[in-house]
Design a protein that fits this description.
2,3-Dihydroxybiphenyl 1,2-Dioxygenase, domain 1, six-stranded mixed sheet, four-stranded mixed sheet, globular
């Protein structure tokens, strides 16, 4: 029945600033509704992100209400820290890992590699990709360590 995610939404305090931020991440702006809502394509004609101008942005962060994870390629993830910094954005610590490079979290027979950062309103964003776990490693570690073990 379910084939994928069609849309997700985040609160923002300054819609113009957020439009610039998400455009700079490479998302394509589709349309704006009455200067209070902007829709960006995550995948053209498949899924989009709605940004709602709101005075309720100061909600305490919890990933169930203010988090979006963008699927990226492994190569894109490897370049993500530099890519973000070149755009003036700062990766952040997550799950005890300093943002010096992406890290891997194993899950059953697979794993995910990821890096976290925030938008201007403190919404939690993540670049993530699924990777194989051929040696069935169950410990989280930096991506470079993971690759060294799985050579």
């Amino acid at each position: 029945m379910i084939e994928g995610l069609f849309e997700a939404h985040l609160p923002v305090s300054d819609l113009e600033r957020s439009i610039d931020f998400y455009s700079n991440l490479g998302l394509e702006l589709d349309h704006i509704v009455e200067d209070r809502l902007a829709f960006f394509w995550i995948e053209k004609d498949k899924s989009w992100l709605g940004l709602w101008k709101s005075d309720k942005v100061e909600l305490e962060y919890h990933p169930s209400i203010r988090h979006i994870a963008f699927r990226v390629s492994l190569q894109g993830l490897k370049e993500s820290v530099t890519w973000l910094k070149n755009r003036g954005y700062k990766p952040r610590e997550a799950f005890g890992f300093d943002p010096i490079e992406p890290f891997v979290m194993p899950h059953n027979n697979d794993a995910t590699a990821k890096i976290h950062f925030n938008d201007p309103d403190g919404n939690s964003l993540e670049f993530i990709c699924k990777i194989e776990n051929p040696k069935k490693i169950m410990d989280s570690m930096y991506l470079s360590e993971w690759e060294e073990i799985n050579k």
